[in-house]
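Incident log entry.

Two folding requests arrived from the same account within the same minute. Monitoring flagged them as a possible duplicate submission, but the sequences differ. Recording both here for audit purposes.

Request one:
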Amino acid sequence: MNTNITALEPSQVRDTNRMDIRKLYSLNFFNDIKTTFYFTDINDPSLKQKLEWVSEGMEGKRMALDLEWKAFSKTRNDQKASLFQIGTNERAVIIRYVEQDSLGTQHEVLRNFLLSHKFIGKGISCDLKKLSERFNADFSTILYDFEYMYMRRYDNCASFIRMIEIYAGTPTAMFKDKKVTISNWNAPTLSYKQVLYSTFDVVGL
């Protein structure tokens, strides 16, 4: 498993160039916390080791989980989830899972990992559907919704940006961009902008 770290700068959130896959990166999404994260894919032979790394010390605790997929218009079905983000504010694994990848051993590695841990997300109804669609399993008892557990309970604004400001503080850059939200997550390669956007989703939680 590659342990050479490539240090990134917050300004690279605007970088639309291709981000190299199966590499380890670090970035301060918040001033006082350095996050180290792997950007990899479902066919990575060391996927199990990377998942063990991200869950180290998290026994009995909830990690953050988020998904991305290419959305179509209302008249067409969205594609299956093609990016899985798992992590904490200090460690994360970002996993590409595109349509052409077959249901091999690594599919079972990811499926078993997800089913054997507990997670937290925000606005999880669509994520639950995508997880079930991809893995043919019920994740409703292991994925908890931060929005309903905390935000709405205390009448706070349920927007992700507002949630970050309340619970995590001010990020080092504007990692959330609505244009990235609807970008092509099933593209042959992903940009720095897309990967940093998606990593921030779990780091912020």
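Request two (distinct sequence, not a duplicate):
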Amino acid sequence: MNSHSVSAPSAGSSALSPASRPTAPAADFTPPPPALQWLVTNWQVPAACLCLVVIAALDLGQRGDFPVAAFYVAPVLLALWSQNTQHALYLAYAATGLSVLGFMGGPLGGPHGAEMANRILSIAMVWLAAALSLQRWRREKTLERAFSDMERRVRDRTDELTRANSSLQTEIADRKGKEELLRQLSGHLMHAQDQERRRIARELHD
């Protein structure tokens, strides 16, 4: 009895080749929104604002004699790290107003000399940090103006060199044309002289 065995197709033969396999579409990269980019770049500003809110809450609701107002300089110093130095000035204004409110409305407000001295010292420290920010801002503006002036000078010098190079190229081309014309005239003159010598030689021979 002859038995014929039928072989089942192997898993390797039924699998799709790598070239015929469907490829997943590449995910489109979507950039983050501008607000998130700003927060990532200027993280110091929201951190300084949060710090200012915490210090103001502690200052306005304090029940002890701890000089919380001395910490109003911390948000201003933190804002000095941001790219825009004007943020430190805005925080200095806010810290000054909150320090005055804390002195006038706080439980330690009034004619207390020590508290007034602490507030004055705190405001002085805040505006010292703001002055550093202002000095940095002026220095950046000075560097920007110097860089712009340098770029303008480089651009003017480049334009001047470009014009000089163009004029030199024109002069070289004109000189080459004149030299070529001079060579042609010299060739014509030598040919004419040779023809004249041959004519004179034939006349003398005759």
